[in-house]
Amino acid sequence: MLQFLIEENMLLVLSAGIQVIGDIMIAFVVMRVHAHIRTEQSIDADVVQAIKKERTYIAIGIALVLIGFLSEAFIRLELLSLLM
After folding, report:
1. Rounded CA gap, 36 and 66, in Å?
2. Which pLDDT tens digit goes with each residue over 39-51?
């Protein structure tokens, strides 16, 4: 029984870690775009090009947040059903 709870806790920690990585990726990309805009002092073709390139990283970050959330929800629901 104790081994099962340890594995559940490890999975919860892993899913929380995935969410944190996704959040940090999104924040990092937003900060880079803002820094680029601040350097250029306007939104020109170069800034638009950077935004388009970094859109992929934002999508990966969002996917990681969703994967982390869904895995945590699944683990908690599975644990709840085992307790009932």
Report:
1. 28
2. 877 778 887 888 8
Amino acid, res. 8: E
One-letter amino acid identity for 23? Answer: D
* DSSP letter (8 states) at residue 1: -
Backbone angles phi, psi at 44, to 5 degrees: -110, -170
In tens, the pLDDT along 54-79 reads: 888 888 889 988 888 888 888 777 76
Helices H / strands E in the chain, number of each: 2, 0
Tokens (6 digits) for 79: 């644990």
Query: Cβ neighbours of residue 79 under 8 Å, at least 6 residues apart?
Result: 8
